[in-house]
Amino acid sequence: MIIILNPGATEAQLGELTADLEARGYGIHLSKGVERTIVGVIGTPERDKEDLIAQFESLSYVERVIPILKPYKLVDRAFKPEGTVLNVRGVEIGGRRLCVMAGPCTVESPEMLFETARFVKEQGAHILRGGAFKPSTSPYSFHGMGEAGLKLLAEAREMTGMPIITEVMDTRDVELVCRYTDILQVGTRNMTNFSLLREIGDTRVPVMLKRGWASKIEEWLQAAEYIASRGNYQIILCERGIRTFETYTRNTFDLNAIPAIKELSHLPVIADPAHGTGKWSLVNAVARGAVAAGADGVMIEVHPSPEKALKDGSQSLKFEVFAQMMRELAPIAGAVGRSL
Ligand code: PEP
Ligand code: MN
Known about the structure:
Helix content: 25-40%
Strand order of the largest sheet: 7-8-9-10-11-12-13-14
CATH topology of the largest domain: TIM Barrel
Radius of gyration: 21 Å
Largest sheet: 8 strands, parallel, barrel
Number of helices: 11
CATH class of the largest domain: Alpha Beta
Order of helices and strands: EHEEHEEEEHEHEHEHEHEHEHHEH
Bound molecules: phosphoenolpyruvate, manganese (II) ion
Number of strands: 14
CATH architecture of the largest domain: Alpha-Beta Barrel
CATH superfamily of the largest domain: Aldolase class I
Shape: elongated
């Protein structure tokens, strides 16, 4: 359940309440908004709920107590009505300004990474992406440069000032990847890797959780809840397409998910039209659609020569196409009250 305090509730009253909850053995998660503090209470037995609600509602500084019936609580919009804004080295995600994450699918060499990083930065991207540990459906394809790739990403950050995001696939690598990255990425194939989610939940490093390719929105939010329940609230969601009967595109980008997430959760949501379509020629249009639908930003794969890319060349944008996307995105952002 969640306990919403009156706007005038004092720190001392909050302290009294949390001490009481702790003494009863419940887990506590605080959400301090501009107007109100909301206390998320985890572990209350179902049978006692009605009594507990009556008890806490009788406190003078409590406005309301709401039982949460959904299978997720901390990522529910009710817990934080105003929406979460992350700040990663000065870059906001979830604020008025859209966040553009761009870079190669995979870090292949210093030259291609640095060239791409400089270019996307010049065009106004905010965060540099690049995979060092690559998931792959085939055991025989390239699996990334590993730590050497992380080092290159860190160098590119030094060079451009852009924070970096990169995928972590294995619980054994979480500590290593955290040493380099600003944002951890959980890929579609790992959305239900609960050990990994827990491990990441124990860090305080921001994380972008991609939607599982066969996962419902509710399951995706439950995966986010795994991370939040361990105390890491710095979560970004990423819609990257789901599998449907359609084969013309690699996946079907679920535009519905963008406003649905905004309705259900306070977490920011980023659109990934590259994996959502698998075709570079469709990426810009889907990016524009996602921004119009309320996405907090986009993640775009960019490569100096997509035809030579070791991975995802078919969906990677050439430099000039990325530049065009940035130009075309700006008026759409303006039309929905955002900026680039
Ligand atoms: C990626 O971002 O390159 C990636 C592997 O994404 P996904 O997990 O969505 O397939
Ligand atoms: Mn990719």
